[in-house]
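Thread title: Can someone regenerate the structure for this chain?

I was given the following input by a collaborator and told the matching structure tokens would be attached. They weren't. Posting the sequence so someone can regenerate them.
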Amino acid sequence: MHRRLALCAAAAASVALLMGGTAAMANPTPAPTSGSVEAEFGAHFPAALKVRIAKAQKYAESRPGVTGIVVRDRLTGAVWRNAAAGTHAWACSTPKLAMVVDLLLRNDSGAVKLTAEDRELIHKMLNSSDDDAAHTLWKRYGGEAEFAKRFPLYGMTDMKFTDKHPHHWGWILTTPNDLDRLINYVLEKLPAKHRAYIVKEMRAVDPNQQWGVWGAGAKAQPGNKNGWSDDNDDGSWIMNSVGFVGPRERYTVAIMSNTMVIQDGFNVGKETTTKVGEILFNGYFG
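Best answer:
Regenerated them for you:
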């Protein structure tokens, strides 16, 4: 979500313990997105999907900035990652999904006791990517000291903070590979009741999140958690989308578009991520 002003205010009001980082990370170095698609995905993708993946990659290469993509078939185990899948960019609001995972599991263990208000805030984070809800839960349940130490357990092993911003859910650098692992943790490792809850929420997001993976179209039964912000140092936009498509959430998709565009960057990145989702899966399921 667009949080630059809100987070600057929050940063001024908080005292954070800062990890080492480099200023360069704030505007991650572009990574090449070209390469042999055929050499990068497993043999188990259907031929028709291989064609779509090649088209999605070609489209991504034509767009401004750097777009990292990961597609996974949970049935066969096939995975395709483009060359930018390991490139760091600001996670924006996508860590809210990891926050939900963490809170539900901590509640199960008895470490915390979620209230009705907490659960409403969780809904708001997933449904409309509500920043105030995330701020409240982050502060209420331990901040970096609690959340960040467990995020890698849910797949976010590439995540890092920088020395330029507070260590906060809204200032995390991550990769498409991280988001791929996170959504697959949700679908493969969470208790069934939590998985069902999150899937239901992600399939019914507010219109402000109906882009990115959502571009797969209604017949693909998409669900997603998106993040967007002008958090690069120069004010250019990052547009991210992670989710699933298909019967029984067969395929997962992670897309991170570091647009490197300031003027109208939101719409540029929204178009990029949504078109990738459309090319990959719109019409694929009938």
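Residues 2-42 have pLDDT under 50 and may be disordered.
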